[in-house]
Structure formats: C-alpha cells, structure tokens
Write a structure and sequence with these properties.
single chain; alpha+beta; 4-stranded antiparallel beta sheet; two-stranded antiparallel sheet; 11 helices; disordered N terminus
C-alpha cells in the first residue's frame, strides 16, 4: 500500500504484509505486528518523517513519487527484517520467549545486499529478458523489427513474466500465508477509510483488492512503459537497454502521479488505470482468517496511537 496522498490535512494509512504479520503506517508513524509461532503478538513502533518534510525537493510532482517509493522500500525492509526475526525467535536460551520480548534487529547495512540484488534481478528479468527475446524474434519474423510491434511484444512478455512469477509464488505455502496477511491489510485499510469502527467483523466485509496497492503501482509502471519505450529513437540492443534503465525514475514518477489522481477520483476514467492492478491482486491477495485480520488491526492501532501521541490529526482521507 503506497501512502500516496501527501496533503497535510489528510491522514492516509497504508502498509504491507510481512512474515506472519502486517506493517501499518500513518504519515508520521508506523507499527509492525507479528504473530510468533507460540501465538503471541510482538510489535515494533517508530515515529517517522514524511520524505517530503525531510527533503523539500520531494514535494514536487514526479519527484515525490521517487521519494515516497524510496521511503516505502526502506520501511518495508525494516518491517520484513523484524518479522523474519520474530518468527524464528520462539525460544531464547532454551526457554520460551515472553510475549513482550522483541527480537534483536539486524544492522541496517545487512539490508543493502538484498536491495542491490533485487534491483539487478528487476533489470535482468523485466528489462534485459523481454528485449532479448523480442530481438531474437525479429531475426525470425521481420514484423517484430517495427518499433511499435516490437514495443508491444516487449510489453506483453514483461507482463507475462510478472504474472507467471507471482502465480508461482502464490503456490508456495509461506507466500500464500503472506498473501493472506496482504489481504488482511487491505481489508483493514478499507475499514478505516470507510469511517466505520475498525473491527474484525467490519473488516471482513470489505474486498482484498485496493487501488493503492503496490501491485497496482507495478502494473501501471509496466503498462506505461509500453508507449514510453515506443518513443525511444534507438535501434541497437545496448542503447535500448541502457535507455530503459535510465528511464526507470521517470516511469516511477509518472506512474505515481497517475495513481495519485486515480486514488482521489475513484470511479473516474483515470481510475481505470488501476483496474489491471486490481485484477492482478487476485493473485497477490488472499482472504484472511479472523486471526490474521486481528493482527492487521493491532498494527493499525499501534500506528494510530503513535500518530496521536505526536499530535497527528486522525482524519480519514
């Protein structure tokens, strides 16, 4: 869930699924709630600054998307680190941990390598592979030499790779549970946004498909890349690949702005851009159990309590 509305009078909640838990964030606070193997809940709360408040440059259109995504990835990494340690920390010195015992955090620098690997994997899987396959096809079928046709084929391959990868993950037991917590996060956010009391019963009435989901954002990035890449005036493989890497920040910035307005004007024609992302969430979200919804609510309550203690206005966006 991307916290994409940055207006000062709005408190918009978002978050993400983690290992056996959920991270929720408000504009100036976040909370991770994790269910340990022994059934006890552990939490980690932390006040945060909006990236646009810390660095004024990220208040401007196009740039604010980059800043928001950077902070979301940074907080998401911390939340995943906490949840992974909590899920493995059932025993300590041969004795069961108390429910309030929090696992020690791994130093921040240890998260750098996974981030670098993820970025390189993204470049290889979604930039290099589609372009390479289309280039090979063009040598057999001349029709793929045309810029429009090759770009459409490239975009189709890119989306197919994404869907295949997500579908494969959804068949793994551990990932399926994370996708259930992803669904719990969406239901609780919908419940909060509705203005109704946030309860398990109320949350379970809502859908698991939310337009501000990171899945929707990624699909918009992939779709927007098709017309943008068609404008690239290069024909060589290396030049095309390099230009696509260089254009990643622009793609992120434009996609953010489109989802920004789509989220504020739901039901508009612009909101149709989020429809493919909502369809994809049929893979990345699953109906949660009441226990999983309770974890998401606990995370939301922790984030909002910390927000209130800092003087934040608990206004529904």
């Amino acid at each position: 869930m991307l916290p994409i509305l940055e207006a000062g009078e709005e408190t918009l909640v978002g978050g993400q699924a983690v290992v056996e838990g959920v991270m929720m964030r408000a504009p100036h606070s976040y909370c991770v709630a994790v269910r340990k193997p022994n059934g006890q809940l552990v939490t980690s709360e932390m006040p945060i600054e909006r990236i646009s408040e810390k660095h004024k440059i990220f208040k401007y259109p196009l740039l604010r998307g980059l800043g928001t995504l950077y902070q979301a990835l940074k907080l998401g990494g911390k939340a995943l680190n906490f949840s992974a340690l909590a899920s493995l920390d059932e025993e300590k010195d041969g004795k069961p941990n108390a429910g309030n015992d929090k696992p020690k955090e791994v130093p921040g620098w240890t998260m750098t390598l996974p981030v670098i690997f993820s970025f390189l994997f993204f470049i290889f899987m979604y930039k290099f592979v589609p372009l390479f396959l289309v280039t090979r096809l063009a040598k057999v079928y001349p029709v793929f030499e045309g810029r429009v046709v090759s770009t459409l084929a490239d975009g189709g391959i890119r989306l197919a790779l994404l869907l295949i990868l997500l579908y494969g993950f959804s068949k793994l037991k551990d990932m399926r549970r994370m996708f259930q917590y992803h669904g719990a996060e969406h239901k609780v956010v919908f419940n909060f946004e509705s203005g109704q009391p946030v309860t398990i019963e109320n949350a379970q009435r809502f859908t698991t498909f939310h337009p501000r989901c990171g899945t929707s954002f990624l699909v918009v990035v992939f779709l927007l890349a098709i017309p943008l890449y068609a404008l690239i005036p290069f024909d060589g493989f290396a030049a095309k690949l390099l230009s696509r890497v260089v254009l990643i920040p622009l793609l992120i910035g434009i996609s953010y702005e489109l989802i920004f307005y789509a989220a504020r004007k739901r039901g508009s024609l612009l909101a149709l851009l989020t429809a493919p992302g909502l369809w994809t969430q049929r893979i990345t979200t699953k109906p949660p159990s009441d226990d999983q919804a309770a974890v998401a609510i606990h995370a939301l309550e922790g984030a909002m309590a910390l927000e209130k203690s800092q003087g934040g206005q608990l206004v529904i966006a």
